Amino acid sequence: MHSSWLEIKGIRQNNLKNIDIKIPHDRVIAITGLSGSGKSSLAFDTIFAEGQWRFIESLSTYAKLFLEKLDKPDIDEAENIRPAIALSQRNPVKGSRSTVGTVTEVYDLLRVVFAKMASPICPSCGSGIVRWDVEKVYEELITNHKDRRAMIMFETGETLTSLKERGFYRIYKDSETVDIFEIAEDAERHEVVLDRLIIADDPRLFESLELAWKEGDGKIKIMSPDGDSFTYSDKHSCDSCGRVLPEPMPILFSFNHPVGACPQCKGFGNVLIYDTSLVIPDMSLSLSEGAIEPFEKPGFSWWKSQLLRNAAKNGLDTRKPLQEFSPAEWEILYKGGSGLYGIDDFFEALAEKRYKLHVRVFLSKYRVAEVCPKCKGTRLKEEVLSYKIGGKSLADMNAMTVSELHEFLLTPPLTEHERAVIHEAHRHILAKLAVMIKMGLSYLTLDRQTMTLSGGEYQRVNLANQLSCRLAGTLYVLDEPTVGLHSRDNGRIMEIIKELSALGNTVIVVEHDPEIIAASDWVIELGPGGGKNGGNIVFSGTIADFRNSDTITAKYLSGETQKRKRLKRTPTGFIEITGAKGHNLNNVNLKIPANTLTVVTGVSGSGKSSLIVETLHRAVAKHLKHSVNDEKPLPYDSICGVDKLNGVCLVDQSPIGRTPRSNPATYMKFFDNIRKIFSEQTEAKIHGYTPGFFSFNVKGGRCEHCKGEGFEKLEMYFFEDLYVKCPQCKGMRYSEDALRITYRGLNISGVLGLTVDEALDVFNDDAAVVRKLQLLKDIGLGYLQIGQAATTLSGGEAQRLKICAELGTPGPNGILYVLDEPTIGLHMHDVTALMSFLNRLVNADNTVVVIEHNMDVIRDSDWVIDLGPEGGHEGGSIIFEGTPEELIESKGSHTGESLAKYILKT
Fold first, then answer.
1. Which of 60, 490, 631, 696 would you call most buried, defined as having the most Cβ atoms within 10 angstroms of its Cβ?
2. Topology (CATH) of 664-792
3. How many CB atoms lie under 10 A from the CB of residue 482?
4. Which is more confident, 34 or 187?
């Protein structure tokens, strides 16, 4: 076979049905299809896994220890697979040390530049510090002190006897030159006069300077007869106050190393403090009424009793609301007094037991992160911040947006010689920043924590890294690179992908966006449905042939499918927030029409999440006294219109469970019904089995060898831990007694292996189970196994499960639902089902606010709020609010332009 084609035969990975693929190298290949059709199984679990597996197999045994080895995919044969790199849309970073600057390596390159070119400013007196060498001193003297008489001196701790033996005969002492033979030996340091001369462009001057520099260990002193003196040193020391700065090495500028990290926050940029609002959530309460929240816990009643017992003799009124306490009373309450232990004493006592996990968890409930008072969040020592280029420290550059830093570094304030010294590092920095701007990431700052990036932002940051590496002959697999990106920027992403391909790489993109699919060279569509109804190739060929095919994606691409008619609703009021100014928000006044579907859109970084999730959602939760993990809303002035709300719910893409024990059946709460059905079977009744017997979370019918996990973890110590099927239950999670009970030919483990579609047939006469299963099917999750571990679900699947859980749980209406990009991972056909669900929520007298870029969702909404006009500092304002029809006619809105073009195409 020709090497310009990649071919894999007999692919049976997951739900793929023994398919064969043949795709061209050095092209952009789009893999599309309905949710659950097998796209990720083909792209990641097969093509990427095989490429990665072969690459790792070619390495030495030692090298393999440091690399994750993927399972070999279930295939017959594969030819011409290249070394593979996968860029997922999930952000795996959990630590706060990683930043945009470190993950792109721009920060590391800046450290090199600062180590070579930065000029220090004394942090004590503000004077400029110059690091001298002999040539610089010579030039300085010739330029500014020519024809003046001068003495060249150096300081030494050498004995007078030794100096005499080496031919040095004059010492400067007590403001005069003294003959060395006239001085008694002592332990003092001495200033040796090496030469007395008239400063001139003369070899003698240079030779004397050179010798003095050597003898003085890089430090000399020049003194004129009238008493003027100048000290020159190769150390970074201040001439005015004598303060010495550390040598500028790259490691000095790292906040991940003790040499450069702020000693107070250890390079994190913030410190944890106990927050009064968490310790005392209700200031209207008195001490006797339980104002101090931690003292109300059962295990800490002694602290409250001693406080009430000793309060009076310390001048504290236990019946007085804490909001009326004077500063002196607050001081006693926190610091303690005569026989009274205060709040600080309580936390200090607990801090001594921090080695216990439950104590650390308890303390974390009352602590919040605050900007480090010493380094002001820069993470670096004061001495490090003294080094500057063009008046800007490394922290200043780190706080710039990508576009601002790129503009600043295009013409750096350096001489031609200095530019030549840092040429390579400078070139790489500009290249990386330019690609990030192209990727629509111009609004990010280098000091932005990586863990705060969305999955789409994280993937694009990594994609920018890859392009700047200029690799060739590589296989890239991308997972929806347009996630979280405004339609205006889709063209830029495609340019980057095409550029990667033009370098001689094969780029495989799992994508639903019509623009990306249309711009690809080759299209593979899987289907025709999801789960067991998917796994087949319904089309594979060029984009030209794809347009003429009759697949479901091709129909959406051509606009053949019938579009939904927008429902027109009348709002019953407004939820309003005034003066929102968190992050980049510009004193925004927000009005959300109640009992409608509102879409909030705008380019990346325009402030959508800041306004809707971190301000609106948290502010409403605070007003209704709903817990939001103790997260405070961003600053705002006022909120109104929330009194008619009965609750607020954020439906995002966070996992529905942190362990494999959580699954769709347990999350939707129909597993309780299934366990009850099994307990009602004749044999189960004979043995007295209750519904609890069929739970894998408690003792009873579960396999006790693996505690219902279905697998065992083997600790490999120096290697990655291995997970193997439990030898007792063979991965079925239950004991033989539990597995003997069957319902319609299936045991409890077999039921958990059913897809939603299959479970509907099995439990068709149980209305409670069917109602919840039907919700999952209607929203496009019919392919999911009801026992699938929550940890394996994608963000989009988790989000749709949450929507179904809300609709499936009877409760009060009047809820504000906030959804963050619910169409992520959805095929165009699945968006139709999603919109049906959102309309059902609104029709049940709820208010739905959606952050979204999808044009179908925007077009079919009741109200649109567009933020912008750009991202970062250039965003944070509402540039449009109104109906979709009005948005199309508006001027200056990127969303309006994109929506108009989309409607014209369809």
1. 696
2. ABC transporter ATPase like fold (1.20.1580)
3. 25
4. 34
